[in-house]
């Protein structure tokens, strides 16, 4: 238990340090609410975001302080996965890719679903992979499935609930 508390404390301090450094949360009640949600209900997502942030920084990525300021999302200048912006908790990797609205939906989803978010996403990935329900409505002419990589990139990935929601909103 002591190890869990120590690791949690370090991740919390790491996130809090970057939140303070970038003035992450907006001023006023909205910023307080976002900070409270990130530190309570969405804590597993915030902790995962802190691990993701540490990994990205260790690989040479940089925090985009101007992007992050008062946004509630800590932005990294470059993506971690080539060709994709990636969001884990309140951390977005890839701020110059023109996908900020889409990625903001993922931050909102993590805050809304809290500790259920990652298990729901993983469960949907598994179901969409094993039982490809999305083939019933997938546009085969616009995004052909012609191999294993295309099955995941054009099939499973864009048809998971959290991605469909984010593509509709952003």
Number of helices: 8
Element-level helix/strand string: HHHHEEEHHHH
Helix/strand-derived category reads mainly alpha
Q: What's the mean pLDDT score?
A: 94
- How big is the Rg? 17 Å
> Spans of 5+ residues with little confidence (pLDDT < 50)?
none
Strand arrangement, largest sheet? Answer: 1-3-2
Quote the distance from N terminus to C terminus: 41 Å
Global shape:
globular
Biggest sheet features: 3 strands, mixed
> Beta-sheet strand percentage?
5-15%
Quaternary state of the chains: single chain
Q: Helicity range of the residues?
A: 55-70%
Number of domains: 1
| Total number of strands | 3
Structure description:
The chain is mainly alpha-helical and 170 residues long. The chain has one domain. It is 59% helix and 5% strand. It is built from eight helices and three strands. It has helices at residues 2-22, 29-39, 43-58, 65-68, 100-113, 117-130, 148-159, 161-169, and strands at residues 74-76, 86-88, 91-93. A three-stranded mixed sheet has the order 1-3-2. It starts with a helix and ends with a helix. The model has no long low-confidence stretch (mean pLDDT 94).
């Amino acid at each position: 238990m002591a190890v869990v508390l120590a690791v949690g404390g370090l991740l919390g301090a790491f996130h809090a340090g970057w939140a303070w450094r970038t003035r992450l949360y907006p001023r006023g009640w909205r910023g307080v609410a976002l900070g409270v949600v990130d530190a309570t209900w969405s804590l597993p997502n915030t902790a995962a975001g802190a691990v993701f942030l540490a990994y990205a920084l260790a690989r040479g990525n940089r925090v985009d302080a101007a992007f992050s300021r008062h946004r509630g999302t800590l932005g990294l200048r470059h993506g971690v996965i080539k060709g994709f912006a990636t969001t884990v908790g309140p951390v977005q990797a890839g701020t110059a890719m023109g996908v900020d609205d889409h990625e903001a939906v993922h931050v909102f989803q993590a805050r809304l679903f809290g500790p259920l978010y990652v298990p729901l996403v993983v469960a949907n990935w598994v179901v969409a992979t094993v039982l490809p329900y999305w083939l019933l409505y997938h546009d085969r002419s616009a995004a052909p499935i012609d191999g294993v990589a295309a099955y995941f990139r054009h099939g499973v990935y864009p048809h998971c609930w959290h991605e469909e929601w984010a593509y509709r909103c952003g």
